[in-house]
Amino acid sequence: MVHRQYVTCALTYDLVVSWDAELTALITRIAGPLFTRPEPRQAFADLVRALLADVPRKNSWQLADHIGHATAHRFEHLLDRAKWDVDALRDEVRSHVIAHLGRADGVLIADDTSAIKKGQMSVGVADQYCGLTGQVENCQVMPMLTYASAAGHAFVNRRLYLPESWAGDPQRRARAGVPEHVAFRTKPQLVIDMLAEELAAGTPFRYLCADSGYGRDPHLCAFCHERAISYVMAVPVDLPLVAARGGVEPVGHVLDRILALGRAGVWERRSCGTGTKGLRVYDWTALAVAVAGQAPAPGHAHTLLIRRSVSAPTEVEFFLAHAPARVPVTELIDAAGMRWKIEENNEHGKDLLGLTSYQVRKWTPWHRHVTIAMLALAFLAAMRAALPADADETAGKGKDRLLLEAPAG
Question: Rounded CA gap, 338 and 110, in Å?
Answer without folding.
Answer: 11
